[in-house]
Design a protein that fits this description.
Number of strands of chain C: 0
Distance between the termini of chain A: 15 Å
Mean pLDDT of chain A: 88
Order of helices and strands of chain C: HHHHHHH
Low-confidence stretches of chain A: none
Strand content of chain C: under 5%
Radius of gyration of chain A: 29 Å
Radius of gyration of chain C: 26 Å
Distance between the termini of chain C: 11 Å
Low-confidence stretches of chain C: none
Chains: A mainly alpha (about 230), B alpha/beta (about 600), C mainly alpha (about 200)
Structural class of chain C: mainly alpha
Oligomer: heterotrimer
Largest interface: A-C, 111 and 119 residues
Shape of chain C: extended
Chain lengths: ~230, ~600, ~200
């Protein structure tokens, strides 16, 4: 029984892999079939999971099992959910802006707090901290490597930020160009950003390569199982 | 006197039988209609009028008038002499009739006598009209002749127009696109026809040409023209005439939509004006008949095509012709020609890469041992896990998509072994819906999930914040707590290991959960190589206590555990990395000296 | 009227959440309640999105639009997955096996396909983008990190080489930190704009 199940799953996996890799020959029926099948299965699973794991415990259970207090605490999300369902009908779609506004307010607040305390403060603090004399001077001698490291870090961070600056010069001679100093800094920033993007590219390729190898390995195992049995 | 024609008694010219005035001299023809008894009445009416007019004229004009009268009298004499000759004949005929009259019945004689006595049955209105008609027209002979000719021509044209009216019906232009103007569509059609071998300039069939067309051709051939003679180039402007003549304020605006319009030259004779009127009223035959007509025109009288266009119109037509020739010439076709070659090259490259990667896997290559030392980030990770003691709780977060599961499973395996060795209590949660079944793929049969299970944490950012505020409520939702104000809940885990393949997912954890973790607890990350570089700054700023990423680091981690650091797929992995590096280098070398292409011409793979 | 109500809701919610986070210990349960409401509403929004997707595909089938066969496939996959999850439960092993046998190979294959596409991209990068400081540094960095990822150089056991490799591996931190700070500043600005009502991503 287990063997047959494994065989069926292996066969499905192999066929789906072939269908996806047929894209190498160009966009075709099998590739699109695989894509649409993924969309259908994923959306069905997600819908079932959200209903069973979120709507039931967060909304329905308090109404069914809870008392008057629970109803009061649940009425607001219930009302918002009904307004969201109204979005399904084009005539009442504008009613959906209220619950979305509620969500937008929460997400905006979390974003502000998160980036402030989670990224900006620690990262800028580290940048400043790297010039702490306690860390740069070991005994009586300065640690030149650490100093160079700190200087390169500051230059890299500052010039990278200049790269994202899009303020334009208002000079009549070059109306569409950024100020020269910013342009020069941005060029240096491009180098640092290019190094980071190159490292990221190598990582993306590595991850994709491992996925490809796993698929080839699976296909090899299936073929061997097919001819072996 | 015959029934069809009436001879004027004054000038002796022929007139239609139904005419009341002579077309040549303008004088009434009533004397020809003279009936005994009526003659005195009509002549008295006109005679008194003329006499009155004569008396009012000055002497000079009277003399001139007398001269005119003399001329008229001379004409009358001539007419009379001709009439005499005819009347002699008529008398002979009359004598013959008299002889026959004896045979006429009595009642008929009475009717004739009565007709002579009684008034004309036409009535007062007609008499007044006739009286008005008696007023002589102050027109010259030639003008009258011309007007007569025009009038006859008008009658003929009307008759012909009626006969060929169906040809002037507005044809439906097939494929007329609302977006593309009709004139542009026609240009394109012309362009297509121009690309075809030029057909012989012959009419398709002579039978398709109406008779009046030939007649007008003869007219034009005989008329003078100031325009230069045509040459083959000018035949094309004629084809472009519809578009040329549609320029505002230029065209005469002849014909219906879809019917071609023809401009008439400046120096036009009366025949040219007539042609213009003819074509305007009749319209131009469209479709094949129109083409046949044009071809006939060009063949019979090549210069007549030029007769129909102004010089400025021709220049404009030439410009349009250049536009039509240049239309669609830029870009698309060469690119399409390149596409098959690029596709073939791509396919060859794909097969090469696949074969290089697959070969070690199918050839049964030996496992390769990885040597070296771990990076500081990986070392810190190892140390953090090593510091965990038995029965301490570790929260393992599955925060990656199924696509990265192969890599994440390969990297996390040594860590899982390490945790098992440390005998820690493991809890699994996931922020992705697929994480519920991915955990079983990750752990396999080693762990019994029935006890711990994998909890789904919904809400992305909002769910993470909720987790850091109230972990138990976040992980086991149920009835809502009615205490809205209370004490702080802390994350009740000694370590959190985050498995992520997404920078945003990891960042959310670091921003929303990390700050709320106490200092004695660790936040570790197992990251996919595709995002590992972006998490290094967080490790540098001590927000992350350890980071493990990459197949090599994972193998070295295994090595640190005392296990074998060999990877079965290492050869394929290295081959794949090498071929990518080679592609980059070859791409750099081959692009030296090649001009940068504008972005609009990029080929997307 | 509706516009003002939406804006008021967004601003008041945001300010309430920030206040609760600042005065965290006292307002934890209140904040937890608001966040719970947010999770419920967010999940319902996701469900409505899925419903709209299914509705679109149903309309395509009803109209008989070209390619409606693929809409049939979507509906088939959705029906089986949804009904199986609702009837058997999402934790059911057989149900999870069905889902994983479809989703896992497809998603891994899509990622694996990226490998081959990236090779041609690397080949034509400089022909397309030309020679700029960004493209030059990108290309050189990519080649160097690809070689480092192979593991050969680390395996040689040369201490100097190891230190050079360590230095090279730290280089992306500078650019990465700049990108992080830039992104954080951008997100901060957008968040503030939402809270003051200038930015309205909720459809008004």
């Amino acid at each position: 029984m287990n063997q047959s199940v494994d065989f069926i799953i292996g066969a499905i996996s192999f066929i789906l892999t072939i269908m996806v890799f047929s894209y190498l020959l160009g966009d075709n029926f099998f590739f699109r079939l695989a894509s649409y099948l993924l969309v259908g299965v994923a959306s069905g699973y997600t819908a079932a999971l959200l209903i069973r794991k979120v709507i039931e415990p967060y909304l329905i259970t308090p109404i069914i099992q809870g008392g008057y207090e629970q109803w009061l605490l649940v009425i607001f999300p219930l009302l918002m959910c009904l307004l969201l369902i109204a979005m399904f009908f084009p005539r009442f779609s504008r009613l959906g802006s209220l619950p979305l506004a509620f969500l937008a307010g929460i997400v905006a607040a979390l974003t502000i707090v998160g980036v402030s305390f989670g990224t900006l403060v620690p990262q800028l603090g580290t940048l400043v901290e790297s010039f702490n004399p306690d860390g740069l001077i070991v005994g009586a001698n300065p640690n030149y490597l650490k100093i160079a490291d700190a200087v390169i870090m500051v230059i890299g961070v500052v010039t990278s930020l200049f790269y994202f600056h899009f303020g334009l010069s208002r000079k009549k001679t070059n109306p569409e160009m950024r100020p020269k100093l910013i342009e020069a800094m941005a060029k240096i920033g491009q180098v640092f950003i290019g190094i980071t993007l190159g490292a990221l590219f190598a990582g993306v390729y590595s991850a994709a390569l491992l996925a490809l190898i796993s698929r080839i390995t699976m296909s090899r195992d299936f073929i061997m199982m097919l001819f072996g049995s | 006197m015959s029934d069809d024609v009436l001879i004027c008694p004054h000038c002796g010219e022929e007139n239609l039988a139904s005419a009341t005035r002579c077309l040549h001299c303008g004088l009434p023809l009533e004397e020809a209609f003279a009936i005994d008894g009526l003659k005195d009445i009509s002549s008295s009416l006109t005679g008194d009028f003329v006499k009155a007019e004569e008396e009012s004229l000055p002497d000079l004009f009277r003399d001139l008038h007398e001269e005119a009268d003399l001329q008229k009298k001379a004409a009358k004499i001539e007419a009379l002499s001709s009439i005499e000759s005819t009347t002699n004949k008529a008398e002979e005929d009359a004598s013959e009739e008299l002889e026959a009259e004896d045979t006429i019945p009595e009642w008929l004689k009475k009717i004739r006598q009565r007709a002579q006595v009684e008034d004309d049955s036409s009535g007062d209105l007609i008499k007044k009209v006739n009286a008005r008609d008696e007023i002589p027209q102050p027109s010259e002979q030639s003008q009258v002749d011309n007007e007569f000719e025009d009038w006859l021509r008008q009658i003929r044209l009307n008759a012909r127009r009626d006969s060929i009216q169906p040809l002037v019906e507005e044809p439906t232009i097939p494929g007329l696109d609302e977006e593309t103007p009709s004139w542009l569509q026609k240009l394109r059609e012309i362009k297509e026809t121009e690309n075809e071998p030029e057909p012989e300039l012959k009419p398709q069939t002579e039978e398709t040409l109406p008779e009046w067309v030939e007649e007008e051709q003869e007219h034009l051939a005989s008329s003078d023209s100031s325009l230069s003679k045509g040459h083959p180039e000018h035949t094309q402007p004629l084809q472009l005439a519809p578009e040329v003549t549609q320029m505002p304020g230029e065209s005469i605006g002849l014909g219906e939509t879809g019917a071609e319009k023809i401009e008439i030259g400046k120096d036009q004779t009366k025949e040219g004006e007539a042609l213009e009127k003819i074509i305007g009223q009749v319209g131009f035959p469209t479709g094949t008949e129109g083409k046949a007509f044009l071809e006939a025109f060009e063949q019979e009288r090549p210069e007549t095509a030029d007769l129909l266009l102004l010089r400025s119109q021709r220049d404009r037509a030439k410009d349009l012709k250049d536009m039509v020739e240049n239309e669609g010439k830029a870009g698309v076709l060469p690119k399409q020609q390149k596409a098959p070659r690029n596709k073939f090259f791509q396919l060859v490259l794909y097969l090469l890469v696949l074969s290089v990667i697959a070969l070690p896997l199918f050839s049964g290559a030996i496992d390769t041992k990885i040597n070296g030392t771990m990076q500081p980030v990986s070392l810190a990770f190892f140390d953090s896990v090593s510091q965990l003691t038995a029965q301490e709780s570790v929260l393992i977060v599955i925060d990656y998509q199924p696509g990265s599961s192969a890599e994440m499973a390969a990297i996390f395996q040594p860590v899982l072994d390490h945790l098992t060795r440390q005998a820690v209590k493991k809890s699994f949660i996931t922020t992705y819906p697929e994480g519920v079944w991915l955990t079983s793929q990750l752990i396999g049969q080693e762990e019994s999930l029935t006890e711990t299970g994998t909890t789904y944490l919904p809400g992305a950012k909002i769910g993470l914040m909720n987790l850091s505020l109230d972990t138990s409520a976040a992980l086991s939702p149920g009835l809502v707590s009615s205490d809205l104000f209370g004490s702080q809940y802390d994350l009740d885990y000694d370590s959190i290991i985050l498995l992520t393949d997404s920078f945003n997912g990891g960042k959310n954890w670091l921003e929303l959960v990390g700050p709320f973790i106490s200092a004695d607890k660790s936040l570790l990350m197992v990251a996919s190589t595709q995002e590992a570089a972006m998490f290094l700054p967080y490790f540098d700023s001590a927000q992350l206590d350890g980071l493990l990423a990459g197949l090599n680091e994972s193998a070295l981690y295994n090595n640190a555990l005392g296990k074998s650091s060999s990877i079965s797929i290492n050869r394929s992995y290295q081959a794949g990395l090498l071929i990518m590096a080679a592609c980059f280098v070859i791409g750099i070398i081959t692009s030296i000296g090649v001009k940068e292409r504008p972005e609009s011409q990029e080929d997307v793979p | 009227m509706k516009k003002i109500v939406s804006i008021v809701i967004a601003i008041s919610t945001g300010i309430l959440v920030i206040a609760a986070l600042i005065f965290r210990p006292q307002f934890n349960p209140l904040l937890s309640l608001i966040l719970r409401w947010g999770i419920t509403i967010g999940s319902m929004a996701a469900l409505v999105g899925i419903a709209v997707l299914i509705k679109t595909h149903l309309q395509r089938i009803a109209v008989g639009k070209r390619g409606f066969f693929f809409s049939l496939i979507v509906l088939f996959g959705f029906s089986v997955s949804f009904l199986g999850g609702m009837l058997l439960g999402v934790a059911n092993p057989a149900y999870q096996l069905w889902i994983s046998s479809i989703q896992l190979p497809l998603e891994i294959s899509f990622l694996g396909l990226l490998t081959l596409i990236l090779t041609t991209t690397g080949f034509r990068l400089y022909r397309l983008k030309g020679w700029t400081p960004l493209s030059i540094s990108f290309g050189i960095s990519a080649v160097v990190f690809l070689i480092i990822a192979m593991g050969y150089l680390q395996g040689l056991g040369n201490p100097t080489l190891d230190r050079v490799i360590e230095f090279i591996q730290r280089l992306p931190i500078a650019g990465g930190r700049g990108i992080l700070i830039g992104m954080a500043l951008g997100a901060l600005v957008v968040g503030i704009r939402v809270l003051i009502g200038v930015e309205r991503p909720y459809g008004e």
